Amino acid sequence: MFSHLEITKGANTGLAPKEIHPAILVLGLQFSEFKICGANARCIAALTAFQKVIQDYKTPEGMGNAIRHLKWEISTIDIEMSDDEAKKLLCEKIDNFIRDSITVADRVIVEYGLQKIQDGDVILTYARSSVVQQLLLEAHTKGIKFKVIIIDSRPRLEGKKLLNCLVNAGINCTYAFLHAVGFAMRDVSKVFLGAHAFMSNGALYSRVGTAMVAMMAKEKNIPVIICCETYKFTDKVQLDSFVMNEQGNPNDIVNISTTLAPKPGLLSEWLNKPDLKLLNLLYDLTPSKYITTVITEVGMIPCTSVPVILREYKPMVQ
Amino acid sequence: MTGPRDLNAQIESLVNRLRRRQVVGSWCVSIETAMLLRQVVSATRWNQVETLIKVVKEDVGRRLVMAQPRELAVGNIVCRVLRLIREKIRTFSFYGGSGTGTNTQSSMINLLGDGSPMGAKRASPLIISELQEMINELENTYVNIIDQAMEHIHSNEIIMTVGKSRTVEMFLKTAAKKRKFSVLVAETFPTYLGHEMALSLSEAGIDTTVISDSAIFAVMSRVNKVIMGTHAVLANGGLISVSGAQMVATAAKHHSKPVVVCTGLYKLSPLYPYDEDSFNDLVAPDPVFSFNEGDLIDKVTLLNPYYDYVSPELVSLFITNTGGHPPSYLYRLINENYDPDDTDI
């Protein structure tokens, strides 16, 4: 069923072509071992690595809107400009992009999001979104009294980092796994989720399990609020989680421990069994009917307005 | 006939084993309870049917239910036995007893309560043979369910299941003898029952894929049907099932995929879920967040529910040892098998 998706085998830098800059190799390794997690973090890391690369003058590879923006910048550089000046200008442009589209955008999103959190709210969130984390920390600093329920899932267990962060800030947290979401959902007043990308048909492409949480919230008529920067909007349309996805390492399913030390479970011999397969999907698609509103740096929009933003604000995004 | 001391010892033994969870699985619990109650009925001396009912319901039945309150199968079997007793006495008094032959409760009690030990002596073997039939039916539960496997599973289907259910396992293995299909098993954290189920199915030659619980919605669009087992079925058709089942059933409903529940009738309980939580247990959160992860433990609330309540709107079909039934039919089965007076055990 998922044979059209490549499984990421372990990264092997020995096989990489010799022309690739070491900063990119390091980046690739970090991505493949999930040392850097989350859309924003990966984007910033990629762009920072590209800055290094540009210093050493090599051609970078592609990553969505950010790269399109970068290419556009590169393509509009005056031919007359000297190499040093051009490199400095490009690095500055990248810094600006990170600042405008990610850092400042996050702050604007947090400002908008604060309007949506009131005293007495019970907020549910899934895995770990950097924007939602900032929003919750800011709301706590502002003195709003609310509770947070963090839903986590295997095998990534990203929610634990969010839990650490929020508990250390003094927020009243509950932690549960995805199987308990029906049980946990009964007291919830709002659900805040993060995004990896937003499709033009209003569908949310995010960490696997997000669709489940959004669906359960919709069942109980609880509003689902997505916090998403506009650089994540894309022209692509996608109807289900199959056509484009990523598979992680299947051995992550075999490992049944929830701590750092891996503990192989019953399925450790799965390679020897011809009829047994493991599937470790990384992303899934949440249909637009489960999403109530999207908070972006240009305002709070319904998810069906994503293509409008792309068309109207494209000059600003770029 | 065993003497009362032996009988007490047997009752004590089953109560203790239930309390210590040494009897595992609703099926085993049902059969042991039924066999014990058969002993109780045959060993008890009774003249009036009320005596027998009191012994079964209050002396023995209540103790068994208290030993493991979450195991609803115990209460179900006690209710069925009480119903059997009352039915037999009713038909016996209608056909065999002296008197007007009316069917009312009071005349029945009077018939036998007139100090005629003959009535009790004649009714007793009938009751015991009915109990034996019930035990046989319990023992043949699986056979009757898996006979229906071929009607429901077709070639090249993709079936999703969650948790580990002996019934579903046998159901799928039977179908696999003649049909080729694939199964997606959700791993059912934190009990990892899905892992055991997948191993077992793959060893029977069924093409099995294990997915993490988070991917259930993502793959549901390709699934043809969901087949799952359950811990108990409540009077409104709702399920008390393994944690995670509610997610699967809701996702299936959103994709309009049928949800089929394979269960024996011994799991059907006359209790009604006025409150969703009353049948649920929150168990130790250690698998969720273990002690050696340190100092966060006392600042955080951890939730680890063991069961899930699945509402009857999400279930399409129950496949039981008496055939396939929709959730709307269950009230008839409850009327036939249980008496309304007994639900307060």
Automatic annotation (TrEMBL), chain A:
<protein>
    <recommendedName>
        <fullName>Translation initiation factor eIF2B subunit delta</fullName>
    </recommendedName>
</protein>
<comment type="similarity">
    <text>Belongs to the eIF-2B alpha/beta/delta subunits family.</text>
</comment>
<dbReference type="InterPro" id="IPR037171">
    <property type="entry name" value="NagB/RpiA_transferase-like"/>
</dbReference>
<keyword id="KW-0396">Initiation factor</keyword>
<keyword id="KW-0963">Cytoplasm</keyword>
<dbReference type="GO" id="GO:0005829">
    <property type="term" value="C:cytosol"/>
</dbReference>
<dbReference type="InterPro" id="IPR042529">
    <property type="entry name" value="IF_2B-like_C"/>
</dbReference>
<keyword id="KW-0648">Protein biosynthesis</keyword>
<dbReference type="GO" id="GO:0003743">
    <property type="term" value="F:translation initiation factor activity"/>
</dbReference>
<dbReference type="Pfam" id="PF01008">
    <property type="entry name" value="IF-2B"/>
</dbReference>
<comment type="subunit">
    <text>Component of the translation initiation factor 2B (eIF2B) complex which is a heterodecamer of two sets of five different subunits: alpha, beta, gamma, delta and epsilon. Subunits alpha, beta and delta comprise a regulatory subcomplex and subunits epsilon and gamma comprise a catalytic subcomplex. Within the complex, the hexameric regulatory complex resides at the center, with the two heterodimeric catalytic subcomplexes bound on opposite sides.</text>
</comment>
<dbReference type="InterPro" id="IPR000649">
    <property type="entry name" value="IF-2B-related"/>
</dbReference>
TrEMBL record, chain B:
<protein>
    <recommendedName>
        <fullName>Translation initiation factor eIF2B subunit beta</fullName>
    </recommendedName>
</protein>
<dbReference type="InterPro" id="IPR000649">
    <property type="entry name" value="IF-2B-related"/>
</dbReference>
<comment type="similarity">
    <text>Belongs to the eIF-2B alpha/beta/delta subunits family.</text>
</comment>
<keyword id="KW-0648">Protein biosynthesis</keyword>
<keyword id="KW-0396">Initiation factor</keyword>
<dbReference type="InterPro" id="IPR037171">
    <property type="entry name" value="NagB/RpiA_transferase-like"/>
</dbReference>
<dbReference type="InterPro" id="IPR042529">
    <property type="entry name" value="IF_2B-like_C"/>
</dbReference>
<dbReference type="Pfam" id="PF01008">
    <property type="entry name" value="IF-2B"/>
</dbReference>
<comment type="subunit">
    <text>Component of the translation initiation factor 2B (eIF2B) complex which is a heterodecamer of two sets of five different subunits: alpha, beta, gamma, delta and epsilon. Subunits alpha, beta and delta comprise a regulatory subcomplex and subunits epsilon and gamma comprise a catalytic subcomplex. Within the complex, the hexameric regulatory complex resides at the center, with the two heterodimeric catalytic subcomplexes bound on opposite sides.</text>
</comment>
<keyword id="KW-0963">Cytoplasm</keyword>
<dbReference type="InterPro" id="IPR051855">
    <property type="entry name" value="eIF2B_beta_subunit"/>
</dbReference>
